[in-house]
Amino acid sequence: MNDTARTIASDGFVIEPEDRRAIEHERDHYEQPQAACIEALKIVQRRHGWVPDAAIPAIAEVLGVGPADVEGVATFYSLIFRQPVGRHVILVCDSSSCFLNDYEELRDALSAELGIGFGQTTADGRFTLLPVCCLGACDRGPALMIDDCTYGPVAPGDVADLLEGFA
Ligand code: FES
Question: Which positions are tagged coiled coil (predicted)?
Fold first, then answer.
């Protein structure tokens, strides 16, 4: 396959040449190509915003692994989105430390501000709201992540101002 070739799975999903090179670069880092599954999924998600089913065999082909290997990682890892999401994804930590630090109040404030619940996307496609396990910011709970940034502690009264920064 030449350097500019696109990887097209049987059901038509296209991995852009730049992404294919990035996935191959990750693959070549590891003794076992399976170890590169998560990075490959992140590369595809960065471009498309989520990872459709059709991307799985295409990624597997580039890595030289079975589709089940890629699917297993995609299913296990909560930061890989398997359905379309909004332009910004809000992940609200519901693990123990945050739960004990007003998680429910924060969740309710987000729902009220956005008019959606967990698993939903605002009508304008701006935000998707999802629960997530520990974000590693337990000393700053209640914590949430928007796109790649972690915030905490976030008081219910901070929500409107925080969201305003995301177009
Ligand atoms: S428990 Fe919420 S960040 Fe760890």
Answer: none
